[in-house]
């Protein structure tokens, strides 16, 4: 029996011997009371050192698989008899509805998958070749030399002090009054949004948002069992009269908006609408969660203040910020700026979920930002993405028969087609080596079946043109 | 009015002007329709460049605070009238019971706080001066040069591939059969435990554990609204007959154990008890969550296999691992090893919570570990902590009148006193400059009022002796 052990080169030999024997016991091939070969015999059979076999046997004794009798040798334990029968837990029965729902809503698992050689317009992640890795490295080396041990040990749930201070200033430069406010560092937007919903909403609560809206936000709202009511988008932001209508008809617990480069439409909400929206929500005393998504990326035109800036010293707006849509998403850093009392609660919830966000990442990020690198990077990124956006727009206009192109920038183009299901288009495009995101996943209702989102941030111009052309041809063939 | 602007040196001047004016408007000091000084006037009043004032006014226009009339100048907007009244949301009314409970259970916020100059025995975080920062730096530089851009962009919810592969091998070297199992990388133990409870339990479900047990685990179980049933600890692990008794009386959904260097007692569960426990839980088909807490720190004696190793190809044990109790807690990396199907669900839940754990941290950690640094570090750390443990033990025996000292190692000493409330002892010690953790927070019931935990990992020998002496004196004075 022992001759069929196949020793590989990666695992320590004693571990392989041990695993082989315990496996034999668990499968019932070696029975309780059975005598094992002596360490001398086995070492000779396998041409390995006797010490290796001794180690393996010692482990097996510790794990209760075998026992030693003085002068007699090693025997298979009794005590393992009951363990021999494999524990076969039926996990599909153990999983609760929440986890099942999370899996159902996990589009990464269920949407059409990219395969090698395909052109993918699914991603709106930043183009990593723009990252300034050298500056990042410098920031790391600087921080690690200043406080290496400290940032590798436990930090604070609220976040790394210097980064919080930096972000206060950063938000204040956007016109936000930070008096009586506080900041909590989160693992990106996703965690921030989760923390807020976990701390404020109850199952069945109504939440008001744009329609369409960020698909991850929809997923998180659904996982919190919220009743999502979406208000249609127009070219300059949400339809205000419909928003007021919904406010008068329903009792909302919260609202969620993406005023700049709205995902997926790319629309920037006008100043007038920001003010109208703010006034309406304030009138009904419904907190606003403002998603600062890609605010930094505005290609053109003047600065537009976030809704949080309109609020002055008021405390009804919760701002979620994140650079990770354009810079270093791999390190997962975002923040919530809100009323100090609310942040106190969110901090405790955060601590209960994962203690704190990586101190190392926060420290590097702080060093990188405070060195003025972000401004340089954003200038470069804006230029590249603006050019790419304009190119993609021209390609879309040239090749794709659309009903409407939304928005005015961002890392993607959102299209509405004539009466045509974009999933049918996707199916055909997939065969021709092209994938994109069907627009229906951004809708809070059954609309949007004829929309699609084409992310171009990580696709080169040649492929943008080639891909859009194919998409256009498929659409033409179907109409 | 404008003369009282006090310009600081840190914020851009246009921002300060802008904030000053919007503040005046929001406070009603500047009324709708009121004319502002011309940009020329204001620049001369404040002795700043006219362009700076122009920038500030442009921002104010964008934010809707003021409007320009050609040839006439800048005026306070009408539209702000409704905004002027400060939005005063009452957040204490908005917070739900969950967040309130999380805040209540947040001992960091409510326990006696350390003040400068005090000796604190509260922490069981590793001593950061032992960290091998140079090797960590090398690991960073190596990873960043190999795949810098990649690890700064989005990664996978399941985790960084190479780290997962490393951990498979690592677990297999502990005797765990990884066939049909999978690994999910988490933000430390805390997130891992949260993900599991979120995915398996429902409100009111019964969970079986040791009593006392890890206070953070108790907090998380309570926040999941679980009915916690604790089984008393003995010197070689949980009381097995009482465990069987509870199993026969209750219907449990899950169980949670810390077999090595149990927190807070420091007890290492014997092999016999591990087997007995495994068999009992298997018989009732109740999944075991095994907390690999400080397993790596065993000072003495032979290797003891984790319960997951006893399970062979069986799938009833969910193992949560983390190095962060001894190494780099600041980067928050842990893992769950469990049945493949379960991990699939947990992966979706993880994605919905925060997309993924920092790719950068995972990549550095992988590089550090695979370079063989962990073995070197753990050898050093074990030696230092063992010596410190033995010293602390001698001090406890010499100075503190105790009823019982638990355990056989770890980064703390857990003491049971004669009939004396350790919170009374703490109150008195605090006045004398000493803090520690009262033991009751580790109990699942009302016991443990006469216990305390003395963490020594970050206290030097001199302070250990000094502190224990004072604690001993306080106890003597009370009995």
TrEMBL record, chains A, B:
Keywords: Aminotransferase, DNA-binding, Transcription, Transcription regulation, Transferase. It comes from the Bacteria. SMART domains: HTH_GNTR. The keyword Transcription applies. GO terms for molecular function: DNA binding; DNA-binding transcription factor activity; pyridoxal phosphate binding; transaminase activity. PROSITE patterns: HTH_GNTR. Pfam families: Aminotran_1_2, GntR. This is PLP-dependent aminotransferase family protein. It comes from Clostridium thailandense.
